[in-house]
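Here's my example:
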Amino acid sequence: MPADNKTIAKNTAFLYINTFATLVLSLYTSRVILQVLGIDDFGIYQAVGGIVGVLSFLNSALSSGTSRFLTYELGTGNAEKLKNTFSTTLTVHIILAGVIVLLGESLGLWYFNNKMVIPDDRFNAAAWVFHISMITAILSIVSVPYNSAIIAHEKMKVFAYVGIVDAASRLAIVYLLTISEIDKLVLYAILLLLIQIGVFLFYFIYCRKSFEESEYKFLFVDKKLFREIFSFSGWGIVAGSAIALNTQGVLLLLNYFFAPAIVTARSVSLQVYNAANLFVTNFRTAANPQIVKQLASGDIEGSHNLLLQSTQFSYYLMLIICLPTCLLAAPLLNLWLVEVPVYTVPFLQLAVIQSLFQVFDTSFYTALYAVGRIKENALISPMISLLSFPVVFVLFKMGASPLALSWVSLIVFALAGFLIKPILIVKIANYSWKDILSTIYICLLVTLLAVPIPVIAYLCLDVEYNLLHAAVVLVLCLVCVMASVWFLGLTKNIKDMLKTVIKANIIKITNKFQK
């Protein structure tokens, strides 16, 4: 089965429309919410939410398994097994939601009451946020099979529409926060819960109307399939625990050693980082189902080629976002926020550099995910990630800067992307070292050609306080990256295809104007 590149392009376009609208709206709402809540309350919300995030690590592992098995069964065309797969995964997520409630209201509540650094006058409000966040997390967990079904069917326009509505709803949150007399921290948590309820109901109704397999058989479990899913996802639970510690867990560490303002700085920098990552994540979301379906149909070479090509394009997309974001972090944050918390700029710069390494880690993981062999990755990669948590703890205990957290994280992703994942996909998924090293080499070559001129301009100009200088650096970043990609990063066939598409669109536009 040849790759349906038109489907990938179409789905990517839908997701990018969603990404752009969501990015603009979320950056604006985040700015106002930070201003309305204040730096300390914003940090409290992120830290308290970190407890729920750590407890929800099981969800990330099972959601990966759910998406993979639904997509695979669609590729095989077995309708009955597809129905059983959906019902089994939904039952598993309902059980998981119950487990999260038990853990949250016991271990999580103990940590909240005894270890969190929260000002006395905000403790009751933070307690409300904790319990409301638990309910929000439960809805998110139960939504996973429905989300996975939409991705498996490649209905990306649905995500585009829901994402835009979700972002617009957050504008309403901003308005309500500014006019309400209720405690703003508690109100913020309640309003986010209401949005999550709305999103869940939409996905539930849409899937029931659109996909036959989404008719849930109450508490149905296919025992053989259940074992397969847990065999696949069980190793992902180990990986998920590491991810949870290195995302949400580190916020708890920051809260333990530093003031809530430092948690805010880290959280704000990650919001920009996550917004930038959305572009690459959406491209991968569009490409991954094709990689899995090709493998399921027996087109192994096509699946391999598509993964490596999509890895390169993912890197190019990230580079064109990360280079200007890194160099212009200070003016961007000054424009975006009324008050920039201390450490936010270096947190952001290190995070976007990390995201370049992360492209290889997440892209190569798709190869393991496609063949259903994540055991080895779940044993090796998380060990490094898990070790980084105590390393950061010791560094903080020794009086290290909060930035030690970002440096350790950057090193972990560099090791994962350039060493661990390549070894695994060669041994497990039968990729060749020649193809992998060629992919990495081209990406690094493009970077080496693109970076020097913008960096020299950045060093020579006053980008923080002169918007014209910042604009010059921005233009240089875009031009240098695009030129590097064109001359070094694209094959002749892709260049010819792009030229044909551009010429066809120019002719189409010209004809419209002539009429």
